[in-house]
Amino acid sequence: MTRSNLNGILFLIVMLLLPAFAVGEINIKRLSLADSLINEAIKEKTIPGGVLAVVHKGQLVYIKAYGNKAVYPDVEPMTIETVFDLASVTKPFTALSIMILAERGELNLDDPVRRYLPYMPRNIKIIHLLTHTSGIPDYSNVAALVKKYGKGNRKGLEEYIAQMAGKNKPGEVFEYSCLNYVALQFIVEKISGKSLQDFTQENIFKPLRMDNTSFNPKGETLKLCAPTEKQKDGSVLRGVVHDSLSQYLNNGISGNAGLFSNAHDLVILVKMLLNNGELNGTRILSALSCEVMRTVPKGYEKFGRSLGWDNYSTYSSDHGNFFDRERTYGHTGYTGPGIFIDPVNETAVIFLAHRVHPNNVGSMVPLRAKLANIIAGSIE
Question: For 53-71, what is each residue's pLDDT tens digit?
């Protein structure tokens, strides 16, 4: 029996042992209203399927798979073990890597980025990259960049980021940009001497036993991957990052996108964060670092972004109407996944979906917000 199959069986046992109506002050009957909401979204073809996991007060209180893992070229049923392209949910892991280095005294969040990346302007700080207030706009035409620099050209990508930097004054405007997190990746790699893939594996995934979380998945993890978008040749991406900047310019290992993971591993992550940086005797961050990471920094309140997370910016509608507005933090990804965590109510929600399969249509924004409200309404 593989480790993945064993994890799936353990999940099912946990669910069978849950009381019928309440677990840890969560009303399971109310929470199960999420089933109808998600199944309706599948019926309307907003998503082909998904996996929902809810953690409350240190317990996994709900996990369920819905719909299909694939609908093209063949139908494959969804399972709770399915691995998804996390898209921009990669960004919190890049930020976590930065926080680990800061704890070790290898950088300061107020350091000028130029200290590590000499080609960057002097006035951009690491904290600006983390909060998307660097003034660097997002990337646009990847095909043109590939034509200019070539596929997977690291030097070309550095040159492009340098050209985009300085378009707006740092610290004045919130502008969501994947290039901020590619720059953070380069800082992690410059300081550690390791690729972002190796750094996260050694300092986050391996210690926490997040066995199905990786860039460019292979082996058992690849077999578990859900496909994403149908390509012009009729094939679908599977285990290959959907984000074009990551795929074509950064070889699938990128600070903005590229990680793949499943509900089991992300449950481990949120449990660690809800437990102030430690889980089962393994400490990833100090309690103080966790608090700093999930709190909007002073002077940045109008932007609503914490360090690698979204608290109450215009992108945070997936938190719904009832969770604590300022303290709840999370992140979503273009392909469909999302996480949010409310430390006040000690609750975390993981909803993994692949809305771009087989075609890139529709929006999950209304679904996520309603889902959050159902879960909030189940807390007693």
Answer: 999 999 999 999 999 999 9
Beta carbons of 308 and 130 less than 8 angstroms apart: yes
Domains of the chain: which residue ranges?
Answer: 3-377
User: Dihedral through CA 13, CA 15, CA 21, CA 25, nearest 10?
Assistant: 100
Percent of the chain's residues with pLDDT above 90 = 91
At position 139, the amino acid (one-letter code) is Y
What would you measure as the largest C-alpha separation in the chain, in angstroms?
A: 60
- Predicted TM-score (pTM) of this structure: 0.94
Give the fold, CATH level 3, of 3-377.
Beta-lactamase (3.40.710)
